[in-house]
From TrEMBL:
Protein's recorded name: Nitroreductase family deazaflavin-dependent oxidoreductase
InterPro entries reported in the protein's UniProt record: F420H2_quin_Rdtase (IPR004378), Split_barrel_FMN-bd (IPR012349)
Cited NCBIfam families: hi_GC_TIGR00026 (TIGR00026)
Organism encoding this protein: Amycolatopsis samaneae
Amino acid sequence: MVIPKGVARFNRVATNRVTKHVVGWMPGFGTVVHKGRRSGKEYRTPVNVFRSPQGFVVALTYGPDADWVKNLLAAGGGELVTRRRNHVVRDPELVHDESRQAMPPVVRQFLGLIDVQDFLLLRRE
């Protein structure tokens, strides 16, 4: 069970407008900067993100079919703002991991409660 689309719509309209001011510097959060596949318009999407040996891993709390995920996959990368730093990311890769091993232990437990099993690996340039 990933977070329902109704919650995603509410977050896009309300929650994201508040959190956009803190996700760039709070641990465990970041902003993915990506371009629309059809429009070419730049979008900024707040995400749960953690470092990995290759770069970063993003928990796909809305599932792998979210538009921002499709945009990054189609473009072959984008930009990630986390901990007050901008990172160019490339070669996004969808990973299904029921054990959530790429996540820190506390986060792994929380993601288990909402049954998040899909992640996006982003390699740093």
